[in-house]
Amino acid sequence: METKVPQALDTPGVAQDIPATLRADRIPALRRDLEVRPRRDGTVEVRDPRLLQIFTVDEEDWIVAQAFDGSSDAAQVAVKLAGKRTMSALEVGSLAADFDRLCLLDSARAKKAKPAKDTLAPPSLMDSGRLVGSPIPEPGARWTCHGCGACCHNLAVELTKPEDARIDRSLYDDILGDQDYAEEQFISPGEPARRILRQQPERGQACIFLLPDGLCAIHARQGMEAKPNACQTFPLMVVKAPYRPARLGVRVNCQSMGRSSESGPPLEVHLEHASRIFSGLPLHRIPSRFEMFGAELSFRTFEAITDDIQAELALLGVTAAALRSIDKKHLGGRITRRKKSWALEIAAYVKAEAAGTIPTGEGAYRWALQRVVRANDALRSLAEDRAAPAVKPEVDRFLRAQLAHVLWLGGPLHAPDAGIGLVGLMIALEASVHAVGPQGTVEEATHAFDVFTSPVLETLEHMWPVLDAIDPRYAKRVREEMS
């Protein structure tokens, strides 16, 4: 879980939110067990190893917090800061209150707090073993890279020691100057800092090795083999299915999916390269048995259900009639009953993000929704139970292919319950159809499907509104189990 510490504001009424002990009495010191990593973008990453959270703090605010010594009140801290930062006692107290609410101070609140466990981890997909032999590519799947550079922005690329050693620092003096190409960052609240390729805030968080022409400097100067494994394989993925060979598939969050869907080369052309890279990496394993709507189910049965879903869509297209049929046959009418609440929960969630009451930091779902041109129209259509509109044939084929990619890699199993994951995906598919509309393009469908499915497939911290919408009693039970 990651959040940004809010700015202190010297506004009327702010003092009412500041505990009296932080206005008139001494301010507790920063906790000694916090782990800190300064960043070049003017912020400081703070990892809380006990409460399992990561915070991004403005460097200037961190300087103020370091003046909290446990014996000074807000006015005394303001005096100590002279020459470093000009702040009133009210501003100091407000910032101290923010740090206290986040349990970063050595206060009674922090001592009583329990670890944060509201970020869901995939319970049904796990790392297990290594690749033996060659994986089986998804039938009919197509993909190629178009050098758009989207995956070279805002993605944390972790470097292992062998990957780090492959990069010849001497070849990049014109890019790096006297700086390193990586820095330590906290990726997971429960883990220490990792060495990550540096990004450039002034270029939209672009990777330090991204050239102005959109190509990778490592690839250009040292070849594909020198790049980090994540950069060589994205968006390819290999999973081990029960009782079957491993599968090679494509993650749908690549922005080249639309351009690749009909004219790209078949996935088989990437088989040799993928086999070489993934042979040295832990694989995701699909379990042989798991829960679907609370009942135990085998992967064979689940696969038969998803095969039938795809056959229904192939017959009728991504239409209202197909979605109703799938809902009735396999999902117990949950799409029909829960899509309104899904839209309302998503809308309420992004509103709470904007208000700062949900600590999602820079990973806010509302930023992702801005990539979908008619996101609000799609949510409104679902809330008002409008029938899914017809889309262009090429859009229909593309959306069916995207769903096939997800199912080939066991996507619904990322959710705590496979049934809820499948309902979430199908509602996201319907939302994508509403967002694209009768005149929409494959490019628009690329963004819509990626964004609406991401809470189930990629950004699992945003899965809570999906769980709350589809099965609120189950969501409540999961929260209780995690507390």
Summarize the structure in words.
By secondary structure, the protein is an alpha+beta fold. The protein has three domains: 2-112, Outer Surface Protein A, domain 3 (Alpha-Beta Complex); 145-234, no CATH class; 284-482, no CATH class. It has 21 helices and 15 strands. It has a five-stranded mixed sheet, sandwiched between helices. Strand 11 and strand 12 form a beta hairpin.
Present the secondary structure layout.
Layout (H helix, E strand, L loop, with lengths): L1 E3 L15 H4 L11 E4 L4 E6 L4 E6 H7 L8 H7 L8 H13 L6 H5 L13 E2 L8 E2 L23 H6 L6 H4 L5 E4 L8 E4 L1 E2 L5 E2 L9 H6 L6 H5 L2 E5 L5 E5 L6 H7 L7 H8 L5 E2 L3 E4 L2 E4 H18 L3 H11 L3 H22 L9 H5 L5 H9 L9 H16 L9 H19 L5 H16 L6 H7 L1 H11 L1
Parallel strand pairs: 1-4, 6-12, 11-13
Antiparallel strand pairs: 2-3, 3-4, 5-13, 7-8, 9-10, 11-12, 14-15
Helix pairs in contact: 3-4, 12-13, 12-17, 14-16, 14-18, 14-20, 16-18, 17-19, 18-19, 20-21
